[in-house]
Specification:
The structure is a homodimer. Chain A contains 16 helices and 2 strands. By secondary structure, the first copy, chain A, is an all-alpha fold. Chain A has a domain of about 110 residues: Farnesyl Diphosphate Synthase (Orthogonal Bundle). A two-stranded antiparallel ribbon of chain A has the order 1-2. In chain A, a hairpin with a 2-residue loop joins strand 1 and strand 2. In chain A, helix 1 packs across helix 4, helix 9 packs antiparallel against helix 15 and helix 15 packs antiparallel against helix 16. Chains A and B meet through helix 4, helix 6 and helix 7 of A and helix 4, helix 6 and helix 7 of B.
Chain lengths: ~300, ~300
């Protein structure tokens, strides 16, 4: 998509405006993702100069949050490339994240007030979500509401704000698109959490079932925990390196109790709710994005 | 000053709006500084609700930058209290910094557009200044312009933006107050750098002449380096633990070459320029703040 190249060009222009050689070098080293948020903005608002600037701002914020996440999670790789903290050090990743955040906010301050509020508020939620994500790995969390609130803040809030802001740019119904973005984000995270269990390590590019080892009690584990008569066995495996037998037992129990199938259903229900809300909006591409996400193989 | 208590109350309200218990606990653990930026804003704009909100935003940004600085510098203390990274860990300091930054930007997005731009742009400069500060400790920097640019970005830019924004709130001459704030910040940093040499460790609360050991070539060292016939001896002492004899030699050379006296003169010249610019503004308190800073004992 030609427009995504223009978004990358706009990001580069914004970073060039910072007059800092090092930041430009670091920008070149960032692995580009799927640019989901930009795709969403462009499909809602069209490929206008304003929309391209909003895309650049949101992608810079997203990149900044990942730079800090990788320091917090001590991650060596990001999208198959070495992370900035691994290539250099933590401080470089922290400082470059702060530069991207603040330059994005500077540009945001010159946009529509409601858009600036939406996006800045989403970053607050995202930062609090990151705090909760870390806190929830302290002990086994069996509270589904806490999980849902955390993934809303950490993953869905910026996607929600992107969609809502794009709707404002296009003069469309902000609330409908906000709900679409929110549900897309929630479904995306749930499916990511499900794939951690159902896919093998070769496909994932990391060890399978790593979430639970790292202390993350995601939706399939939450549903399983609710449904197990003897919860102790599952709790005992929490944050442990799992043997083949143990991971097989978890997967088997997730099938027997329908924990896995019901997790998939919940993600799909969120997707379908969003599809219904956009029914009269005549935006078949957004429907396709959501369908591609929820109607995949698990 | 009663109004500074109100600023702290406003910060607490903003953090409460984040609905995150942990953030409120962490806020309580932050050591309060002199609140120089707030004092400046209140003396320029008066103690209005708008000014108090701007103060809270600027103090939150300043606190966030210190939280990240302490991680970057691996600092154990801040204003005589244990730093957040020392009390807990780096990730807590990074995440709480991100929460304070983003909540401040969210509030800023609802203020006057020019104020929002001024402050957000200052944070970009501040973040780049931090990057340069770290980079300048790699090798002996003998370029005075690089030092001046770095302290402008890292220390003066947010003070400049605070003063300019307060002037906008009060309908006063933005440029005059921007210059005052910029020069106050530059003089403040230069004097801090001079005191590192002239004061003993008991007064400083840390080892004297630590800057040079840590790789910071500040203004007195820069002037000394320019004036020494044999520069090699000074360069050889860079980033070394200094013996008493070595630090005595540096101080003696700084006196013989007038490097120290001229550093003080440069800080004073910046202060006097600001005092002159505000001559017709009828704000004796701002003149007093600057005089108190530059007319002290060194």
């Amino acid at each position: 998509m030609e427009a995504l190249v223009q978004v990358k060009e706009q990001i580069k222009i914004f970073v060039q405006e910072c007059n800092d050689e090092r930041s430009l070098e670091l920008l070149d080293l960032l692995a580009t993702g799927k640019m989901l948020r930009s795709k969403l903005i462009l499909k809602i608002a069209g490929e206008t100069p304003e929309a391209l600037r909003l895309c650049a701002v949101v992608e810079m914020i997203h990149a900044a949050s990942l730079l800090h996440d990788d320091v917090i999670d001590e991650a060596d790789t990001r999208r198959g490339k070495p992370s900035i903290n691994a290539l250099f050090d933590n401080k470089t990743a922290i400082m470059f994240g702060d530069i991207l955040y603040s330059k994005a906010f500077t540009e945001l301050s010159q946009m529509d007030r409601k858009i600036a509020y939406n996006v800045a508020n989403a970053v607050t939620l995202l930062s609090i979500g990151e705090m909760h994500d870390v806190a929830l790995t302290d002990t086994f969390n069996s509270d589904y509401k806490k999980y849902l609130d955390m993934i809303y803040k950490k993953t869905a809030s910026l996607i929600e704000a992107s969609a809502a802001s794009a709707a404002i740019l296009a003069g469309r119904d902000e609330e409908k698109y906000a709900l679409y973005g929110k549900n897309l984000g929630l479904a995306f995270q749930m499916i990511d959490d499900i794939l951690d269990i159902t896919q093998d390590s070769a496909t994932l590019g990391k060890p399978a079932m790593l979430d639970f080892v790292e202390g993350k009690v995601t939706i399939p584990y939450l549903l399983l925990h609710q449904r197990l008569g003897d919860k102790q066995k599952l709790e005992n495996l929490y944050k442990k390196e799992l043997t083949q037998e143990e991971s097989d037992w978890i997967k088997h129990q997730m099938e027997v109790t329908d924990a896995l199938a019901d997790s998939i259903s919940q993600a799909q229900a969120l997707g379908n709710e969003a599809i219904n809300v956009l029914h009269d909006e005549n935006n078949p591409e957004l429907i396709m994005i959501m369908k591609a996400m929820i109607e995949r193989e698990f």
